[in-house]
Automatic annotation (TrEMBL):
This is Energy-coupling factor transporter transmembrane protein EcfT. CDD domains: EcfT (cd16914). Pfam families: CbiQ. Keywords: Membrane, Transmembrane, Transmembrane helix. InterPro entries: ABC/ECF_trnsptr_transmembrane. It is a multi-pass membrane protein. It is found in: Membrane. The chain crosses the membrane at residues 25-55, 67-87, 122-140, 248-267. It comes from Candidatus Vagococcus giribetii. Its main location: membrane.
């Protein structure tokens, strides 16, 4: 599998890379909570632009994330369509008005309110998902584990989190290796095959992937047990990064952004910004 298709830690020397892993985790959680709780379009637009600017600052190339972004985009579009399919008038209920753009059959008309509501859903994805990707791509798993342990999290939990993050690229490698093996046996799951065959082929990959993952987990746990992992209450870390002034500034900024989202909810009288009033 080519390197650009993998999603994992990518070393760098940018402002974001130099931040502590704990700082990035706290900022990601706080801003994600802010984006998920509010439907204020102005706030979501601002955070969406900010998240895209951070990608530019981090010097992450499109080729490094194109696969995962396209994968997420497909499921996001399916979710947007499902929202309209099951609740085509939900926007009119939220905003208390109904401006029809296209008359449909039964309740399936296209209204400004529904489009505006689903536009906000799209902004939620754009504003929150990039922060998660930035965290995964710019955080060294070992350094992140040491940072968690430094703020009081058990080193066993910290190490487990680091292993989970480090394991993401390994899962991708295993997926593509199994996929190549399946295609060598005659299962066509490339873009040339129909959607039905590709779905069937993907399902045939999942089961071997689960088995190989369980086998690898057993090997790792046995190796850790043989090395007496967990015997002592404390441990030292090879990779450890101290908090700097930038870390405290980023955490403070994330807290301000979160508080701003709650202020907007109070100002608007609800989670929704209503331009139809």
């Amino acid at each position: 599998m080519s390197q650009h298709q993998m999603v994992g830690y990518m070393p760098g020397d940018t402002f974001i890379h130099r931040l502590s892993g704990t700082t990035k985790l706290l900022a990601m959680i706080l801003i994600s909570v802010a984006c998920m709780t509010t439907y204020d379009t102005r706030f979501l637009l601002a955070t969406s632009i900010f998240s895209l600017v951070l990608f530019k600052v981090s010097h992450i190339k499109w080729s490094d994330i194109s696969f995962i972004v396209k994968f997420i985009a497909v499921f996001s579009i399916l979710n947007i369509l499902a929202v309209y399919l099951f609740s085509p008038e939900y926007g009119t209920v939220i905003y208390g008005s109904r401006h029809v753009l296209v008359e449909g059959v039964g309740r399936y008309s296209i209204t400004q309110e529904q489009l505006f509501y689903e536009f906000n859903l799209i902004l939620k994805y754009i504003s929150s998902i990039p922060f998660v990707l930035l965290f995964l791509l710019t955080t060294n798993p070992s350094e992140f584990a040491s940072s968690l342990n430094k703020i009081g999290v058990s080193y066993k939990i910290s190490y487990s989190v680091a292993l989970a993050i480090r394991y993401i690229p390994d899962i991708q490698v295993a997926y593509y290796d199994i996929s190549a093996s399946q295609q060598a046996r005659g299962y066509e799951i490339s873009k040339k095959a129909s959607i039905g065959k590709r779905v069937k082929g993907a399902m045939q990959i999942v089961f071997p992937l689960i088995l190989s993952s369980l086998e690898r987990i057993e090997v790792i746990s046995t190796a850790m047990e043989l090395r007496r992992f967990g015997r002592d209450k404390k441990r030292t870390w090879y990779s450890e990064k101290k908090f700097t002034k930038n870390d405290f500034l980023v955490i403070a900024f994330a807290i301000v952004v979160t508080l701003l989202s709650f202020v907007l909810i109070y100002t608007n009288g609800s989670r929704f910004y209503n331009p139809f009033q």
